[in-house]
Design a protein that fits this description.
single chain, about 240 residues, alpha/beta, Rossmann fold, seven-stranded parallel sheet, about 15% strand
C-alpha cells in the first residue's frame, strides 16, 4: 500500500494512462479524484474500479474556469492533496502551414498552461512530502518532435522544462518529476493505420507498444516514498524508442 490514505488528483483520468494510474493508485490505498472531459461512460467505468475510494469531476482543462472548479471540488471533498498527476493532453495531426492559431493556443493551454495553473492551485493543499508528477512525451525530448504534431511536441517539451524548473522552486517541501511515455497503446493509436503503427514499432527496441499500466507504474514509483530522493527527473518510458537514430 504505497499510497495508503493519500489523496491524489489525476487529470484526464477516465481512459488510457490516466485511468490506469487511477486504478493503480486506488489499489495502493489512495483516495483518487480524477477529471474527465466528455466521455461519461468511460469515466463511470473507471470510477467503478476504484474500490469506492474515488470521485470523478467533469472539466475541460482547456478552460481556466473548469480548472478552478476542480480545485473547488478538491477543497470541499478532501481539503488536502498529497499527489498531483497532470496527465491531461490533446494531440491532433495538422500541417504546420495551415495550423490555425486557435488550435495552437488550445494545445498549448491544455497541455502546458493548465499544468502550470493546476500546480499553482495545488500547492496550498500540499504539506511537506507532497508530490507532483507531470506527463510529457517522447515527442517532448530534444530532437524527437514530429512535424505533423508540432504544437503537441512543443507543449510537451515545455512540460519537461517546466517540471525541472518547478522542482527547484518547490524543493525541499514538494518533489516534482516528469514521465515521458513513448508510443502507448491508448485511444490515440486508433488514429493510425496498422501500417503506420508497424513503422513506429520498428523504432521501438522492445518491439511493441507500451501498455498504459507500464506508464502508470512509473508514475506510482515517482509519487511514492520509493522515489524519496528523486526530484527534477524526466523518466522516459518508451521501450527504447529514444535510442533509435
Amino acid at each position: 500500500m504505497k499510497l495508503k490514505d493519500k489523496v491524489a488528483l489525476i487529470t484526464g483520468g477516465s481512459r488510457g494512462i490516466g485511468a490506469a494510474a487511477a486504478k493503480l493508485f486506488s489499489q495502493e490505498g489512495a483516495y483518487v479524484l480524477f477529471t474527465y472531459h466528455s466521455n461519461i461512460d468511460m469515466a463511470t467505468k473507471t470510477l467503478s474500479e476504484l474500490n469506492g475510494n474515488g470521485k470523478m469531476v467533469q472539466a475541460d482543462l482547456g478552460k481556466e474556469i473548469d480548472i478552478r472548479h476542480v480545485f473547488d471540488v478538491l477543497k470541499n471533498d478532501y481539503n488536502r492533496l498529497d499527489v498531483l498527476v497532470n496527465n491531461v493532453g490533446i494531440c491532433k495531426s495538422q500541417d504546420f502551414g495551415t495550423l490555425p492559431l486557435s488550435d495552437w493556443n488550445n494545445t498549448i493551454f491544455t497541455n502546458l498552461t493548465s499544468m502550470f495553473l493546476s500546480c499553482q492551485l495545488a500547492i496550498p493543499f500540499m504539506n511537506d512530502g507532497g508530490n507532483i508528477v507531470n506527463i510529457s512525451s517522447l515527442r517532448g525530448l530534444e530532437g524527437y518532435g514530429r512535424p505533423p504534431i508540432i504544437d503537441y511536441s512543443t507543449s510537451k517539451a515545455g512540460v519537461i522544462s517546466f517540471s525541472k524548473t518547478l522542482a527547484k522552486q518547490l524543493a525541499p517541501k514538494i518533489r516534482v518529476n516528469c514521465v515521458s511515455p513513448g508510443m502507448t497503446d491508448t485511444n490515440i493509436t486508433t488514429a493510425y493505420t496498422q501500417e503506420q503503427l508497424n513503422q513506429f514499432i520498428k523504432s521501438i527496441y522492445l518491439g511493441r507498444l507500451i501498455e498504459p499500466i507500464e506508464v502508470a507504474k512509473a508514475i506510482l514509483f515517482l509519487a511514492s516514498d520509493d522515489a524519496s530522493a528523486i526530484t527534477g527527473l524526466n523518466l522516459t518510458v518508451d521501450g527504447g524508442q529514444s535510442l533509435s537514430s
